[in-house]
Structures are given as structure tokens and as C-alpha cells.
Design brief:
By secondary structure, the chain is α+β, with helices and mostly antiparallel strands. It has one domain. A two-stranded antiparallel sheet has the order 1-2. Strands 3-4 form a two-stranded antiparallel ribbon. A hairpin with a 2-residue loop joins β3 and β4. The longest helix has 8 residues.
């Protein structure tokens, strides 16, 4: 349904016939870590996330899984191989 409280005019999964069903009855504004995210949109009432009603919860345990401005790079570790054992395996 279309939000009628905080993000007026935007599609919202928490909006129902009785109003916003999210905890507290409204979405929470974006946190500092969301500044350059592509999902943070400006509305009349401020900056809000288009994907999450409470962005602070997404950043609670590390990087937000919905963040578009942060890349989750996994460092590859080089494993040292014993040349003698490698020659025996190679065939």
C-alpha cells in the first residue's frame, strides 16, 4: 500500500488499512552510515531508506546487507604449498 505517514506517496509493506503497522507506527530516518547509499531517498519529512523501515538495525552487527555504497570484499589468502608434496600429487 501507499505510505500515508512518513514516506508519503511511496510503496510500503507495513502500511495497512489501520495505518502503519511497523513498530512505533512510523519508519525511522537513515543513519550516518547510509549517507551515500542509493536506497536512501529524500522525502518531505527527511531522508529515509526505501528498503528498510529501521536502517539502524541493519547496521547494528556490521555492514548493512542492503547498502549499495559499500562493497563486501573478501581477501584471498595465498596458501603456501610444499613443492615436494605438490610434485607427488601432480602426476
Amino acid at each position: 500500500m501507499i505510505c500515508e505517514t512518513t514516506r508519503k506517496g511511496a510503496e510500503c509493506a507495513f502500511m495497512g488499512k489501520d495505518g502503519c503497522s511497523y513498530n512505533g507506527g512510523t519508519c525511522k530516518p537513515v543513519v550516518e552510515a547510509c549517507d551515500k547509499c542509493g536506497r536512501a531517498l529524500k522525502y518531505e519529512t527527511g531522508m529515509y531508506c526505501s528498503a528498510s523501515p529501521d536502517p539502524a538495525v541493519k547496521w547494528k552487527n556490521g555492514i548493512c546487507n542492503l547498502a549499495t555504497h559499500v562493497s563486501n570484499v573478501v581477501a584471498e589468502t595465498k596458501v603456501k604449498v610444499n613443492p615436494i608434496k605438490a610434485s607427488k600429487r601432480g602426476g
